[in-house]
Amino acid sequence: INAEYGEVAKSIVSDIMRNLESDGNGTEDKTVEKTYVNSLITEVTVNPTAGNDDTDFELDLFLRPTIDIGDTNTSLNTSTSGTRVQIQYLCAMYNEAEGRWEESCTTIYDTMNPSKGVICVCNHNTSFAVLMSAYEIDRGYAVVQSYLTWVLLGISTLGLALTLCFLLPAAELRKTRSAKINVCFTVSLILASLLFLVQDLFIKSDNSGAIKLRSVGCAVYTMLQHYLWLVVFMWMIIEGFLMYLSLVQVFGSHISKYMLKFNLAAWLIPIPFPLIGYFVFTKSYTVGEGATAVSLIDHKYMAETMCFIKPETIAFYTLFLTPLCLCIIINLVFFGLVGKVIKNSKSTGNISDNEQMLRQLKAVVSTQSKGLKFLETSAKANINIEKAFQMIAEDILLKTPNPMMKPVDPIINPADSPGNSGCAC
């Protein structure tokens, strides 16, 4: 906080805290907002041009607040009762009819250096001012959620690392198709998890880290995290697709050079999403000309206190949450199709339907882990007999050298040729 206004600012913050606590006591909802006028009140009138009404314009208004609230770390206060209050700037208009200030403009300012001033982006005529607003935040949940994230994600990352340690030395198992895809999925998930976990080493909420908040380095880090999590989502879809081919379609499910195609899909399709997020949702506003010009950037892609996608924004919902939901829905469809095949299988012998389904699930897990095909047959009930012989004949044909034919790489095969081992990620 500026030394000139230090005592005044401290007094106002203390007053905000007292009002927040008194208004919140005895109420179930303690989300209380207090506002104080923190700039000159400016009345703006824009005369409409021919053919345009008085709302067909964009007004970029620069206002310099009287009191500097400080960066996000300075403007965060915690009362003796544990209430966490964030002081923020807010562009508002004065509603003369109701006698109160209303938020009706987009507020743009540098949260790490608010002394640069505030740009209010509006599209109407009225009296404007910058308010100093206090919001109760997270109610103590954010710290708990952060610790839970570190612990649970750390345990998950350790489990993934152990998976690779046990899987990679097993040469025969590593040659199977399902193992290759599992290795690629595990590697991408480890990279995404580690990048999220180690960011606290380089990025600090008080902007004292090696990577500065809202900087180019922070933007690159944000886009890289966004990209890796989308790669993880893609491998999840590929895992479900492979299970569908193995257990539902089975016959005629061969794809040539499938590992190359799967890797291209998993690593290339997500590339446009972080680029769109940054370049479309990050806008620069300039007020004035020459030496007096003031430029501020409206970051609607990067969060304020970390290098990750900003929550509760259009970029977060459309470019991160939507792909995640689509991934879950697609895998649920694959799972439903597999479950339908298992459910429709008839019991044979003197065992119950539940025991029969349990045996089928065990067979599914066993064949998937070993990269084998799964097909339930019954000579007595004439179930999949012809299909089984066709599948066996097709596999024999594919493995038989023929100088007149180009070899076809089946998508599901217990083992590759000696020169084609590895996951080819």
Question: How would you sum up this structure in a few lines?
Answer:
This protein is 46% helix and 15% strand. With 425 residues, it is an alpha+beta fold.
Description:
With 425 residues, the chain is an alpha+beta fold. The protein is built from 11 helices and 11 strands. It has helices at residues 6-24, 141-167, 171-174, 177-197, 199-202, 216-249, 258-268, 272-281, 314-344, 353-370, 385-399, and strands at 33-37, 42-44, 59-63, 76-78, 84-95, 100-103, 106-108, 118-122, 126-136, 282-287, 294-299. Strands 1, 2, 4, 5, 6 and 9 form a 6-stranded antiparallel sheet that branches. The protein has a 3-stranded antiparallel sheet with strand order 3-8-7, with no helix packed on it. The longest helix is centred in the middle third of the chain and has 34 residues, at 216-249. The relative contact order is 0.10. Residues 1-5, 24-32 and 409-422 have low confidence and may be disordered.
